[in-house]
Design goal:
With about 200 residues, the chain is α/β, with parallel strands linked by helices. It has helices at about 65-95, 115-140, 150-160, 165-175, 185-199, and strands at about 10-15, 20-25, 35-40, 55-60, 60, 95-105, 145-150.
């Protein structure tokens, strides 16, 4: 990690899931960046089990408005913002000049447009955790770019001027520098960080 006297230009990417996120730090040069850190962070308090899926009262059953839902949502917002802020703080303290952050999500659809209750519950939770991450990033003075998982590869092929196969190979190579898992969510987070780095 660089010290404060040699600050590196770097970006963080998050792939947001229900209750957690993959967070990957990528540093330049843009043409051949590398991964400096990859980790899983919790967005919901492990000690409050229901906060992982706060809109679920049970399998495929929505939790109605009321004190319990309000308590769970407040817990997610408080815990999730703290988790994201801690990642940003650690990387800044390690000497990385952060300007932008990428977020990858499963969907951006408005939950109110979904008629199927079970799918709407998942959409509500997706929006909740995405906005918690986004809010924490903005509070830390950073710009945010958001992509859907199914769109980001095509965007990267265009912006980074890579072939699909070439991009996959580079993302696989990224993982060789990582101690721990390097799954699809980590690769997507790395790709979003690379895209905002390039921008």
């Amino acid at each position: 990690m660089p010290n404060q006297g040699t600050r590196s230009h770097a970006s963080i990417g998050f792939t947001v899931k229900s209750g957690w996120a993959a967070a990957v730090l990528v540093a330049g040069p843009i043409a051949s960046p590398h991964v400096l850190d990859s980790r899983r962070i919790e967005l919901s308090d492990p000690e409050v089990a229901e906060s992982r899926q706060p809109y679920h009262a049970g399998f495929a059953t929505a939790r109605g408005p009321g004190p319990e839902l309000t308590r769970l949502l407040a817990s997610v917002k408080r815990f999730g913002r703290k988790s994201v802020t801690e990642v940003i703080r650690q990387h800044r303290d390690s000497g990385h000049a952060l300007h932008s952050v990428g977020i990858v999500v499963g969907s951006l659809i408005d939950p109110d447009l979904i008629t199927n209750e079970h799918i709407r519950i998942h959409a509500l939770e997706g929006r909740l955790f995405r906005t918690v991450v986004e809010d924490a990033i903005v509070r830390n003075g950073l710009h945010v770019s958001i992509w859907r998982e199914r769109d980001i590869q095509a965007e990267a092929v265009k912006v980074l001027r890579r072939t699909k196969n070439g991009l996959r190979a580079e993302l696989t190579q990224f993982g060789r520098a990582v101690d721990g898992p390097w799954r699809a969510e980590h690769r997507a987070a790395a790709l979003s960080a690379w895209l905002v780095l390039a921008a």
